[in-house]
Amino acid sequence: MDDRSGTAELRTAEDTIALGARLGRELRAGDVVVLSGPLGAGKTVLARGIAQAMDVEGPVISPTFVLARVHRARQAGAPAMVHVDLYRLLDETSVDLLAELDSLDLDTDLEDAVVVVEWGEGVAERLSDSHLDIRLERASDTDVRTALWQWSRP
Q1: Complete DSSP assignment for 19-30
Q2: How far apart are CA 154 and CA 66, in angstroms?
């Protein structure tokens, strides 16, 4: 697999989870994943696949109302996954993501975790020089999604 960029057609939720797992195996502590796409595109389902590959605890559900959830690693020394949803902050004119995450007192050092951000495009990239941008799209006349991804690594 070319880890720098790619495209995939996702016919089912299982396909979306499998892509998340495939990409998730490449993630390391300090990486940021930015998930974008319209409501219902499958961002949280993709995050489940990433969590599966990272072998972290807890069910992965949308953190819309709490903004962020920490999923601890099951293996010692492996990174946690911090799952963030910025949807509620979209109406804010100047979101300071770092300040928002700090105010949540997540009880984990973001440098020792993989941060997966839904609705964070244009903002979350500031968290790390190493980020994976994933865009999910869906045509209005089908349930098939298209995923496009691109790594930005120094």
Answers
A1: HHHHHHTT--TT
A2: 32
Residues whose CB falls within 8 Å of the CB of residue 77, separated by 6 or more in sequence, listed in order: none
Element holding 145 (H helix, E strand):
strand 145-152
Q: Which two tokens stand for residue 119?
A: 């609705």
Mean pLDDT, the chain, whole residue set = 84
Q: 32 near 130, Cβ under 8 Å?
A: yes
DSSP letters, 71-128, are E-BSSTTSPEEEEEE-GGGTT-SS--HHHHHHHTT-SS-GGGEEEEEET-TTTGGGG-
Place of tokens 């559900």: 61
Tokens 């989870």 belong to residue: 17
pLDDT band (50, 70, 90) for residue 1: very low
d(CA 106, CA 72): 11
**Contact at 8 Å (CB) between 101 and 113?**
no
| 10, 42 contact by CB (below 8 A) | yes
pLDDT, one tens digit per residue, over 88-140 is 665 555 656 666 666 665 556 778 899 998 887 777 677 777 889 999 998 88
Tokens (6 digits) for 30: 């300090």
